Amino acid sequence: MNLLKVSFISAVETAVKLITALIVIKMLAIYSGPEGVARFGQFQNVLSILIILVSGSSVTGLVKYVSEIDSKPDAGALIVSDYFQGAFTFGVIASVLLSVLLVFNAEQMSYYVFDSKKYEGLFLYLSFGLIFIVFYQIAIAYLNGLRLIKEMIAIKLVASVFLLLCGTVLVYFFGLYGSLFALVGMQIVGGGYALWLMNRLSLFSWGWFKLNFIKKVQVDLSYYWLMGLVTLISTPVVLFFVRAHIATTASWATAGMWEAMWKISELSLMMVTTALTVYYVPMLSKSITKVEQLTVIGKVMLLALASASAISLFIYLFRDFFITLLFSSEFLEVSNILRFQLLGGIFRVAGWVIAFHMIVKAKPIFFITVELSFGLLFFMLSILFFDLHSLEGLTYAFLINNVLYCLFALIYLVMFYKVGKVINV
Questions:
Q1: What is the model's pLDDT at position 2?
Q2: Which of 124, 237, 243, 333 is deepest in the core (most CB within 10 A)?
């Protein structure tokens, strides 16, 4: 399946996902205001952290090895089911451990995330949903690796439609609490549907869902778990603490304004990255020679930058309309400070394309060092510029960090293909 066809099919799912997110956020902005939007973002980061912890080894790693084995079935003794079972084993162990921690610390988590014990039940509910997150993530990775794009998209669509239907109803009746329950529920529904769909595939066996520890498989996947863990630290964890700093030094309403600004750039970039990831990771994994790799990178980079630039410019020109459409007139303060956030997003896309080369080509220590360094840099820049320039300072931090990351990524790529070697770790 070529890039254009994959992008078109993925665009349908991405459109549904975007519309769902827009409607849920819009209702949340109306019924809960900036404070509700900020707290929603805070819980989203917590959920992202848990997803990475229970499935960090299964997403990119499983896609890579399933793609390689499928294209070269006689390349080695290990088969697809070995990596599937390896990812499942890791996910089950991680989800059980984290579920126990959530059950016994639900009240403390509620206070830590929301400054209230009102949300204790939410974390108990989340502890039940972790195993379904494992099913959902493993199924997505497996189907992507085999290039079963339609089946993979179907699973994502079911989860998005659930959030659209149930999320809007729950927000209307229960406000913020309802939106958070729907957010966890979409993972449970997606995981359940994934099990049903996988059972219908001739390439799948229920015997794969068993604990099986193969040393080489776990070592291979552990690189990707470590890299996923670093991505966790450099993105959702950093956002969590930046938002907490804004709420502490200013207010939750101010944090909600920043969340609105972040959501606008995030949703615009998701239109680019979601569609391209489906094509990019498997094709880069299968590319052996440097010429093949550069061809894939060049094709994706060109399309990513063109799309990101066009979308960002369109949003900026009609920013007041989009802010009111996505949130409410209460958030129009964001209009005056959005330009650097959108510009930084374009550089972020360029860095994203090259960063996947580090991940897929398994340069774990190098990738970990880079991500941690730039995650820490973004946190420090955010705190510094927010204290100096309030909300607009956060857009300066975002732009500067992404420009520097993009420059570093380009240097990495030149070293890899011109010099012939980058730190071989």
A1: 56
A2: 243
Q: Is-contact 224 83, C-beta < 8 A? A: no
Instruction: State the 10-residue block means of pLDDT for the chain, 425 residues long.
Output: 62 77 87 90 89 76 73 58 82 92 93 86 93 90 80 88 90 90 92 88 73 78 75 80 91 92 83 71 71 82 89 92 89 91 92 77 70 90 95 96 91 74 47
Helical spans, DSSP H, in 287-363: 290-317, 319-326, 339-360
Residue 375 neighbours by CB under 8 Å, 6+ apart: 230, 233, 234, 235, 237, 238
Q: What pLDDT, on a 0 to 100 scale, did the predictor assign at position 111?
A: 87
Q: Is 214 left (phi over 0), alpha (psi -120 to 50) or beta?
A: beta
Residues 298-326: b if buried by 16+ CB within 10 A, e if exposed: eebbebbbebbbebbeebbeebeebbbeb
Name the residue among 242, 274, 271 with its Cα closest to residue 259. Answer: 242
Of 193, 323, 255, which is closest to residue 35 (Cα–Cα)? 255
| Number of other CB atoms surrounding residue 100 within 10 Å | 11
pTM: 0.79
- Please spell the DSSP secondary structure of 318-329, one letter per residue: THHHHHHHHS-G
Q: What are the extents of the domains in the chain?
A: 3-419
Q: In 1-127, at which residue ranges do the beta strands (DSSP E only) sit?
A: none
Tokens describing residue 352: 């994203």
Angle between the N-to-C axes of helices 3-55 and 176-199, in degrees from 0 to 180, rounded to the nearest 10: 110
Q: What is the 8-class DSSP label of residue 117?
A: G
Give residue for tokens 């890299």: 227
Token duo for residue 178: 């309802």
What is the token pair recorded at 368?
């970990």
- 16 is written with which tokens? 């549904």
Q: How far is Cα of residue 405 from the mean position of the Cα atoms in its chain?
A: 18
Question: Residue 37's closest CA among 49, 26, 46?
Answer: 26
Sign of the alpha-carbon dihedral angle for 329, 334, 338, 342: negative
State residue 78's pLDDT score. 61
Rg (alpha carbons) of the chain, rounded to whole number? 21
Both structure tokens of 362: 């398994």
